[in-house]
Fold this sequence. Notes:
This protein is of the alpha/beta class.
Amino acid sequence: MGCHKNYQGSSKMKITLVQPSMKVGRREFYGVAPPLGLCYIAAVLERSGHKVNIIDGMIEGSTHYEDNFRRIGMPVAGLASRIHDSDPDIIGISCMYSFMWEDVSRLSAILKDIMPDTLQVLGGFHPSALPEYSLENSSADCVIVGEGEETFRELADFYSGSAHFSDIPGMAFKNNGSIVLNPPRPHIRNLDSIPFPARHLIRMEKYIQTGKAPGSQKNRRFTTMLTSRGCPNNCVFCSIKTVWGQKWRPRSPENVVNEIEELVDRYRIKEIHFIDDNISLDKKRMADICELIIGRDLDISWTTPNGVAVNTLDRELLYKMKRSGCYQLAFGIESGNEHVLRRIIRKPISLSRTREVIRYAKDAGIWTHGFFVIGFPGETWEMIKDTLGFARDSGLDSAFFSIATPFPGTELYKLMFGEGMELDDFSKLRNMDAVTGTGNFTREEIVDIQRRLIRDFYMFRFRKEIRPDSILHRLKNIRSVSDFRFLTGKFSRLAGIW
Length: 498
Ligand code: B12
Ligand code: SF4
């Protein structure tokens, strides 16, 4: 372990948790919302008596251009000086997206320079997938692999002099020039036992005023929430198991709706974006959440920007979801070709069932959005055309086509780069870029095909939407100013795509 301040005897730590800002391409969608992971960790640390401070680089500073990218938030040097001013005993830095890695390692180096005795901890998806790489290529002292709450709490308690790094499951750390990887920590079993995210430590009103959801939203006063962790599937391009594991762990409906109530009462929140990977996996739990929202008369709208499991949705549940405020569902359909779905992506959904669910959702008055991915090794032009065909004729209101991206911790990463190989330029791991060709297409061709699919789909939708019967149908469904705002948002986005 590195040389640090000696805290033997002192019990409560001063901890600064940080999320750096991000750089996005000119045409890239992005979102800014509270750093929920840091807020969860902070809540657990506060409950243990530690003093916590959160600095989110994405909400500090202003958007500006840097090397052909837009920087959303505060540059690295400014952030380092803010952290220095907070004078912490421990700094925790989050790296949620791999494309942020360059900034995270620069920030870590600057901090080690100006605060050599302060313990630096990394966490989030990128360091969790590549702990050794992250320690070798940054000045951080340790990495917390996976779910952060319990490991960070134990680490903070160790700094109070009660445990050793090598005794803390879920940690990787530097030890006299070599790297030690401790055994993994079991996931938290009872999610109701964790306190709600410490939103009182962030500037909620600033997120509400300036926050941004990647799709359109109905109400300006929105925020994000997480009602379950993990997903039982194992899609080839998905890295969520690195942090959450494959077992789906739900919070109880009462616990979820208590948090919604707190958001409504304390922050006057009008809209919730549930960022679960699989919120409706348990049909009964989903129905119970809706019943409680309706029963407690909570006046909110809600949506699922990351995708819901189609298998569990039926007509009755969709109508109940609508009654409880759901206005938009995103479906992770991924491909319109059965072979790609089953053999390449390994996602157990049926396309005919998906069509049915889209129809039910539309009947219930819910906007339907589809996520598709193209550019897998072995995927042919015919298969890609099936995906466009499905997106067009399944009746989806909107869709997005991403390029298969080999994020660390995924099967696709191993498939594209081989075991033990590491990509040296993580900045390319974003949704509007391709890192390599696929065998059938070059990298440039894949990017070109993605643009064509997006244009083609929206041109098709545009022609449908300007038909008098469609206009009438949309107008008939406008019941409030927020419905109108949502639709105009959708259509201006549509216009912006060309
Ligand atoms: C919500 C979300 C978004 C939102 C972000 C809104 C926001 N700012 O909150 C939106 C829709 C904008 C988005 C966009 C993208 N996303 Co996204 N997103 C997620 C999602 C679903 C949830 C993240 C989250 O908030 N989780 C909840 C909190 C509680 O968890 P957490 O932050 O992970 O924190 C825990 C641990 O990671 C750890 N931890 C985190 N930070 C730290 C720090 C320290 C010091 C420690 C010790 C521990 C620690 O402890 C926390 C508590 O247990 C994840 C997948 C997932 N299920 O987590 C993908 C995910 C993070 N996204 C991903 C990606 C790639 C993207 C995109 C590039 C597009 C795409 N292809 O999907 C864009 C890029 C960003 C952009 N341009 O805006 C990848 C990242 C993979 C990678 N290695 O880069 C993920 C993992 C999904 C995947 N595809 O596998 N995303
Ligand atoms: S269904 Fe979604 S969350 Fe689950 S493994 Fe597949 S992509 Fe990941």
